[in-house]
Amino acid sequence: MPATPRPTLLPTLLLVRPQAQAAQQAQRLQAAGITAQPFCVEDTVADDAALAALPAAAMQADWLVFVSPSCIDLAWPHLADLPLAANLACVGRASADKLAVLSGRAVLHPPHGNDSDALLTLPPLQQLAGQTVLIVRGDGGRPQLGETLAHRGARVHYAEVYRRVPVQADWALFDRLAAAGPSPALLITSSHSAQQLFHQAGATRRRALLACRFIALHPRIAATLQQLGVVQPLLAADEHALCALLTGPR
Questions:
Q1: pLDDT tens per residue across span 7-42
Q2: Which residues make beta-bridge pairs with 36?
Q3: Residue 8 burial class via C-beta count within 10 angstroms: exposed 0-12, middle 13-18, buried 19 and up
Q4: CA 47 distance to own-chain centroid
């Protein structure tokens, strides 16, 4: 039974992330008594050629590293029936939990932190001489993970299984919420989405946007928001922290 909605620290939460992930998260938050709605400024489009080549590459790998939930959503259906010998790893706990459920296998992930920096500190990834690592990501991902693993001796390959495309957010929804007050809060899950959000808002809505409360999943995203003019964005590293932030002590 869904939890009874209760007064929260923040008003309606707009989830600035790909549509499918935002819709799933909105349902989970609703069950926790938090009002949230998708607010998609960019979405992911599968790269069919990369996905077709993925099974053969995965069968040759010693490690499969997934860098985002979108990678798992798109890639795992192409891998699920294979007799994979590769170890599985994710940069974040939420992604690792999701992949563990889908694969029925243990998934390496950092116990603290949810980025490639944290993953790279784990002992199994320190000595990789002669091993093949396949990094499953979207186009244009950060180079640090692959470069560091290569420096540690790994043969690093990439499967860029999707590309990001801008989509027009539901600004009519934003305008209604802002006019009714209080201003909505926004969960920002990538620096690129933050930049796209402000690009779409333009000068017309910039003031209304800056009146909102922003929550970032990572300090790097918070830094991007500050560069865009946001004052003191909040941090919530995962959904548990997000719920705690929004609902406060029970």
A1: 444 589 999 998 988 999 999 998 888 899 999 999
A2: 13
A3: middle
A4: 18
